[in-house]
Design goal:
The structure is a homotetramer. By secondary structure, chain A is mostly helical. Chain A folds into 2 domains: about 10-65, Arc Repressor Mutant, subunit A; about 80-185, Orthogonal Bundle (Tetracycline Repressor, domain 2), CATH 1.10.357.10. Chain A has 10 helices and no strands. Chain A has helices at about 10-30, 35-40, 45-50, 55-65, 80-100, 100-115, 115-125, 130-140, 150-170, 175-185. Chain A is elongated, with a radius of gyration of 20 Å. The termini of chain A are far apart. At the A-B interface, helix 6, helix 7, helix 9 and helix 10 of A face helix 6, helix 7, helix 9 and helix 10 of B. Chain A binds a DNA duplex through helix 2 and helix 3. Chains A, B, C, D: This is TetR/AcrR family transcriptional regulator. Chains A, B, C, D: InterPro entries: Homeodomain-like_sf (IPR009057), HTH-type_TetR-like_transc_reg (IPR050109), HTH_TetR (IPR001647), Tet_transcr_reg_TetR-rel_C_sf (IPR036271), TetR_C (IPR011075). Chains A, B, C, D: It comes from Leifsonia williamsii. Chains A, B, C, D: Keywords: DNA-binding, Transcription, Transcription regulation.
Chain lengths: ~190, ~190, ~190, ~190
DNA sequence: CTCTAATCGAGACGGTACGTCGTGTCTTAGC
DNA sequence: GCTAAGACACGACGTACCGTCTCGATTAGAG
């Protein structure tokens, strides 16, 4: 079959590159992330990066896929009260954004997604049907808190989209905002 | 009194710069937009740009403000049936995205917003309380199609955020998706 | 006793490498000659080159030694008239230089010699005491056309040096120049 | 006439670049001379070099033209004895070659000349009809020590060519060699 | 007839330098 | 005082080669 030969790809280098990417992405943001910087930080030749990734977008997408960019996903609680649980989740998300660099992270991801289709798709994947949020929504449907035909993916999109938009637009993200957003999707007026 | 004197700012140059910005932004996207490119395209010295704008973000923000970047805003119809009207509006928006370069435009705006706070805020402004969508929602409240306490701004955010997220994630945007999204915010199952 | 064993050096590879070297040297010159290029052209791994040669200078020196770089050496005639014979020889040499790539070849050799001592020495060897020119000069001494104590090697150096210098300086090399050069070393004025 | 405008070329930068070139050329030789190195040494952007010179060859040619590369030209004495004077001159030249880096300098110039036509021509110019050597030869013709029709330029070429060839070939350059070379061009046997 | 060790092709690796592009600042001359 | 033009120091780009280092796969003696 194929005449495979030659030295094998170095796992050490691969990992060093992705970690360096994550480190720089986290500290300086997507648009101060440079291939040269990653190479230097990882102690690697530039060509070793270009051999395996075609752009810094792909690099970020891969780091994202390895879970090096995002903090642990937030678990929405399941108290039986869907409205309360979603509000709690959203409040936690907003809490992340308010931590120093939290909104920068989201904006950097948006910039990366804008430039690179892979990043976009992978962000979506990690938020989509397989996410913690979607799981909670599904139990909501089973418990009759949501109508049976509801589109769970779109439900999630709507919440996450609102979060992203607020990060891009630098809208304030306080607790009341969390409640208002939940009210928009669950109907009714905000509690407070 | 004050030593006011000297040549006055050239309106010709200002307009040429913003139009060049819009032209390049539209055809090559935000990250191929360069100050040098704009200067050349506008037949202007670079310094003339730097004197009045501090970054390409501001440039884009200004072009946006002048309405040079976006097509005419979409008017949601007012047939009395809010669900149908919102679905129509969303379908029209998706139509824009499906035109060649339509989703690139949204992604470019996201990239610009990620990099520059002004762009973010201005995008939000043009979509916010003063937008056509907000107006239609307000008539919905008056007509009793929406509960009186609903947060109109957040309602809009949620829809627009979903659109932006779909553009970033390259999610398909067909008619059924429009209906599903409307159902998420208005409750109930999609019609079809 | 000694652990002699293992695969023996491949003559095929050796020859392919030297021929590839000669081919590239001839067509692209010394400074576009790269080890990677030679390896590719010869269908050989780079390591196989580095195992047997330490630099591209040595490579060229070896190709030179195998006679792969230079055309057949020019024979000075022996008509009994030394001045005429030397002029003929020099005219032939100039003829080589005027062929397309002829002066490039000499300049490439100079560049190689400048960088690598071996090349320099080998060029000298092939032009020195063992050369055709030296042989003709020796018969000139025997025939009394040159004084008995004359330094034959230096005599050759002087002529070859003038040729190299003209190639480096891009001086024109016409027939009259050949006669003038011969006059310089043999004394008297040029014939024409 | 032409609409000249824009900032004027910086003489400071020009001089710094040529001096850095000379410094590096002298200490590390032509093939360790890099544009990046010159830029760094001169405290200048690379583009400033590329704007005015097309290759490192041109750079060296210019530095040569400014007299930054070569030591003061050697004056042949004029004692009335042409043979003695030429021998003295050649001995001095060989003395330069024997100083540390002296032959490297000549070889570097040869390499530069091989790569760049300008360098070649300028070396020739500075050694040619206008040189000190040519002047001494001319007085030799006037004094009847050389035949009237002798080609002075070629006479010089022959001597200089021999020197260059010896540098390239790493031939030893002792005093006896100087005498032998002079004998070749002046006829007769070396004195000693 | 196996074992062993040097060679082969291939090709990834950490580097250096290339020549280009864009940044933001500065210096001209012209209006 | 603003403008078009354009040079400047700087930083990053993506590419080409360098010389070194694995990798299987051959391929000869030595046992």
């Amino acid at each position: 079959m194929t005449g495979r030969s030659g030295r094998v790809r170095s796992e050490t280098a691969r990992v060093a590159i992705l970690q360096a990417t994550a480190r720089i992405f986290g500290s300086r943001g997507y648009d101060h992330l440079t291939i040269e910087g990653v190479a230097a930080e990882a102690g690697v030749g530039k060509q070793t990066i270009y051999r395996w990734w075609h752009s810094k977008g792909e690099l970020v997408a891969d780091a994202l896929l390895e879970g090096l960019l995002l903090p642990e996903p937030l678990l929405p609680p399941d108290t039986g009260d869907l409205r309360a649980d979603l509000t709690t989740w959203l409040r936690d998300v907003f809490g992340l954004l308010q931590r120093p660099g939290g909104d920068d992270l989201v904006r950097s991801l948006a910039a990366a997604a804008a430039e690179n289709a892979d990043v976009g798709r992978r962000i979506r994947d990690s938020l989509g049907a397989t996410s913690e949020l979607a799981a909670r929504l599904r139990t909501g449907v089973e418990a009759g808190q949501l109508p049976p035909g509801v589109a769970i993916e779109d439900f999630g999109d709507v919440l996450v989209g609102a979060v992203v938009l607020r990060a891009l637009a630098r809208t304030e993200t306080d607790e009341a905002a969390a409640e208002r957003l939940v009210s928009v999707v669950l109907g009714g007026a905000p509690q407070r």
